[in-house]
Amino acid sequence: MTNPSTANDISSLPQKLRVLLDGKRDYDIVIERDVLARAGSIIKERFGDRRLFVVRDPRVDAHYQTLFKSLKDVGLRVDDIVLPEGEPAKSWDCLQKTIAALLEAKADRHTMVLALGGGVVGDHAGFAAAMTLRGLDYIQIPTTLLAQVDSSVGGKTGINTVQGKNLVGAFHQPALVLIDTATLRTLPDREMKAGYAEIIKYAFINDPEFFEWLDKNGRDVLIRMEGALSHAIATSCASKASVVAADEREAGLRALLNFGHTFAHALEAACEYDRRLLHGEAVSIGMSLAFDVSARMGLCHDDEAARAIGHLIRMGLPTKIADIKDFPRISPDMLIDNMSHDKKATGGRLTFILTSGIGRAFATRDASMSCVREALAASMRHN
Amino acid sequence: MTNPSTANDISSLPQKLRVLLDGKRDYDIVIERDVLARAGSIIKERFGDRRLFVVRDPRVDAHYQTLFKSLKDVGLRVDDIVLPEGEPAKSWDCLQKTIAALLEAKADRHTMVLALGGGVVGDHAGFAAAMTLRGLDYIQIPTTLLAQVDSSVGGKTGINTVQGKNLVGAFHQPALVLIDTATLRTLPDREMKAGYAEIIKYAFINDPEFFEWLDKNGRDVLIRMEGALSHAIATSCASKASVVAADEREAGLRALLNFGHTFAHALEAACEYDRRLLHGEAVSIGMSLAFDVSARMGLCHDDEAARAIGHLIRMGLPTKIADIKDFPRISPDMLIDNMSHDKKATGGRLTFILTSGIGRAFATRDASMSCVREALAASMRHN
Lengths: 383, 383
What we know:
Chain A is an alpha/beta fold. The first copy, chain A, is 45% helix and 15% strand.
């Protein structure tokens, strides 16, 4: 892992990180304003005259036009596969359609798939690429903050089934990630904040300096100040990439990336994954719960937990279950029961990511369930 | 790769080979008569108390009972997923059913899948395991000679779609391969011969000594003499394993395993993949064609090609298209056109595996198409 520029050097754009896996599958993350307009020359220079299929969200037409033009300008052959909006794209049915489209159009082993859109598009397109001809190369071009700092790095791809979300999928690393910060200009504020929750997560896990930086500059990230935004994205990608490089298949270290997520998944399930609660918002509440449980268990100082949660509040993120509008009437025990169905549960016991302070998260199977229950009950109270 | 016992030492059963990949995913192939009855203790000793799902062919009831008893005897929890007979199991629909069954039964990341049956079952079960929770461990327990020497080693899994066979799939290496030679006792002679075609293929590719051994002992393999059978299987698995280890994702060396296969796939397609032509029979004709083309191009001595083809004839295998009953009336050019749709074609040019003699195969994109046409025409003539 090459480090991104440090906090004192945030003007040195564009940024490039290299994700080190096993040599053969190493890849770059390029973070650059308006990089979409240069995508054609970047792709042609790195991969040669490959045939390309863009798999994309229907709502990114303007970005697609920019991308398409830059690919055409260097003479690359491009086809376009447009997915339905939102989570329905992560279905068996939709996945089969994408694969059939690739095969009908006579994709061969040198064909590349470009995923243009948010996390849903990346998960769908990456999985389709993984399975077609037993694995086509693909490029992630994430257009939401959440996807830029989270799902586009790490190689997790997949779909949802009636049994649950992301229970079917593949580990398939991208050949390149292109992050165009300009695509965030039109992103709704609520989605910017939700993406920010995943950024602050990296600070909470193992980077107290990044926390100090975000505590000062977080607002600039949210209002899309170019330097702050690029630095936050690059630091997040670098953090995720270093964890992924160390532990590609999530046996241990990678589990820390699930900080706040066991709670988050249970809350999202309770909200039926609808717009009441965005994933990043659920993660914000989940991380607050993780700090609270850790404080209640005496693992983390109360002041430290309060400081972490206070930061989330100042950034305009929800930190309590009571903050969710129209949250269903369910008990802490029902939520705990939901968590046990999370796929991270193995052998029946729940793994929690807890913390001994900002920047010091750890995985444990020995969480006190009474502290978890108390934290959930407190989180549900309006006060 | 540990070498199997040599030709002079064929009594030293059972045999165990280790497939070396990257350290973490290395696995053993155990070749042993009646190993099914010991499967429980082997699996428990290696993998501990894992929950198991057997995915199997409906026709292997007797083998399943043996396996089930041995697993139960050591206290392992076993569920059973029975597939439809034959190729229909390699469909999207059927694959989704297996994955749904695994998820409904609350499979977790420590669950293992056991594939019991022929190549179809291995391809289906391995692919289902690859996708469920982004990858469950699985064990191959092949019960046909073809699967024992070919598809159960190497990690290729997949299904068929309307666009073609095996165009959708994953590379997913098994955690263990258990080969019980006793399962071949009830295998029809025609299928034994078809499996033998894949055995002799390894000799043709790069092992002239193995050819000499098979030329002497091939008949003993077909009549299931235990020592000869185990030696032939072990040598074949070792050969495939060494190629797979060197080149897991088929960029170069692994392509040699397709010796005879470009022709074979076109012939199978012409026969609509029905019982007129088993895969191994198609490979036998395909290898004969590869020798003939090589001889016509002056790459291989005529006597050498005649010796190779003569061996196949003596073993009761078809070597000419004219040997196929009810082969459709199609021209050499139509067959060549079929080959171009094979997924091994990249950038429009056909890769052929040709040979400069027994044990000396090589890949080339410079085959003489007029020699290919002549060889096909000769192969179609009854004389």
